[in-house]
């Protein structure tokens, strides 16, 4: 299925960090409840530019088999560019840096889920995306890798629908 994305640009800082675009995919056209999905699986969202070339392919694995009927939750996947340190000999050193140190947010996808009274699971309301203006606005001479982290509410993992 192909859905349009409404995109806005934000200029949020004066430092060297790239300013993001925010995209919103409205799911209301798919019905009152949203888009029905299996209780567990993989969601793939491919973001295209106006020339129909791929900007980013988001792949999010989810497992909502424990979600009670008439509840809601979300998943958020953040992708950062993280410098890869090289030692004197030139080997790559992939030691983890502290979570906030030297990483730059490149992409984010926010998915909202709800369950019906009968326990069916739906992707609902909208899908929100953040992405950089350019694919990699970093020092081209430095080594970087992309690292993704998926998070969801922990305590409680699900909340009753209003």
β content, as a range?
A: over 45%
Tell me the number of helical segments per DSSP (H or I, 4 or more residues long): 0
What structural category characterises the helix and strand content? Answer: mainly beta
Number of domains: 1
Could you give the count of β-strands? 12
Terminus-to-terminus distance: 29 Å
The overall pLDDT, averaged over residues, is: 87
Shape: globular
| Gyration radius from CA atoms, angstroms | 18 Å
Low-confidence stretches: none
H and E string: EEEEEEEEEEEE
For the biggest sheet, the summary is: 8 strands, antiparallel
> Helix share of residues?
under 10%
How would you sum up this structure in a few lines?
It is built from no helices and twelve strands.
Key features of this structure:
single chain, mainly beta, two-stranded antiparallel ribbon, globular, ATOS_Transcription_Regulators
């Amino acid at each position: 299925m192909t859905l349009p994305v409404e995109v806005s640009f934000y200029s949020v800082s004066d430092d060297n960090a790239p300013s993001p675009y925010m995209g919103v995919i409205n799911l209301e056209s798919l019905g009152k409840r949203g888009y029905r999905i299996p209780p567990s699986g993989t969601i793939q969202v491919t973001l295209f530019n106006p020339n129909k070339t791929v900007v980013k392919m988001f792949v999010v694995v989810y497992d909502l088999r424990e979600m009670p009927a008439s509840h809601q939750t979300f998943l958020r996947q953040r992708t950062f560019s993280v410098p890869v340190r090289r030692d004197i000999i030139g080997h790559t050193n992939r030691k983890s840096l502290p979570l906030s140190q030297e990483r730059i947010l490149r992409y984010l996808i926010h998915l909202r889920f709800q369950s019906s009274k009968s326990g069916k699971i739906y992707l609902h309301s909208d899908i929100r995306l953040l992405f950089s203006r350019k694919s990699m606005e970093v020092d081209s001479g430095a080594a970087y890798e992309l690292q993704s982290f998926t998070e969801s509410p922990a305590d409680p993992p699900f909340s009753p629908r209003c």
